[in-house]
Amino acid sequence: MIDIHCHILPNVDDGAECMQEAINMAKIAKEQGINKIIATPHYHPEFKYAKGEELKEIYKEFKNELKENNIDIEMYLGNEIYYTYDLIDKFSELDFYSLNDSKYILIEFPPNNFPNNLCNVVYEIKQQGFTPILAHVERYIKIHEDPEIIYDCIKTGAIIQINSSSLIGKQGKEFQKICNLLISRNMVHLVSTDAHSDTRRRPLLKDAYEYVEKKHSKSMAENLFINNAQCILDNRDIIIEEPLEKQIEKVSLLSRIFRR
């Protein structure tokens, strides 16, 4: 499997706190059947997270440590970009990393200041030459209230990612419910760990893969955990299934009469 959202690099953000913890995370990932990871440390214009060349050097050091520890995982570099209202205007000035130097960027939104015009944001990012992957969409209250936001974003060109822990109910039934709703309507393209440590938020995918395989289908699981992520690594277009429109229940005139 391939994890395209993981805070595994040590001492760069709120993820792994040291090299040993990062190595432990990699061992867990390998045991889970994860063979490729895109490290996606937070990129926040106002926070002093490691970025640019400093981040690339830490990434190279971690890859060397994996080799020294005989952990056979392929590593790639990216960022999880924090959206601010002036972000797009500054795109050309910022030193963030797209996912494996592809056209895909991973982007998250402030939960308490979620943009009302999300489709416009997607459109503007596309105009900059990138394809936005909307991170852990199940965590936003506005999506619970109106899943059609995701439908519209996909039609505008967004790729949708959810967290594995949400999908299997580790974050509560409501998170699991919205994940399943989105999957059933072809409105999820990637399931990732969003792992931050080797204890509390670990890089776990196996149970989520088996859950999708059982509840939905094996082909769906293959796409969400492997095929679509490989397209990102190869900088190829993900084959997007047409998202399903909301089903509006139609009540016949005859049934209305009998209900009276």
From TrEMBL:
InterPro entries according to UniProt: Caps_polysacc_synth_CpsB/CapC
Name of the molecule in the record: protein-tyrosine-phosphatase
EC number, UniProt record: 3.1.3.48
Pfam families: CpsB_CapC
Enzyme class: hydrolase
Family: Belongs to the metallo-dependent hydrolases superfamily. CpsB/CapC family.
Keywords, ordered alphabetically: Hydrolase, Protein phosphatase
PANTHER family xref list: TYROSINE-PROTEIN PHOSPHATASE YWQE (PTHR39181:SF1)
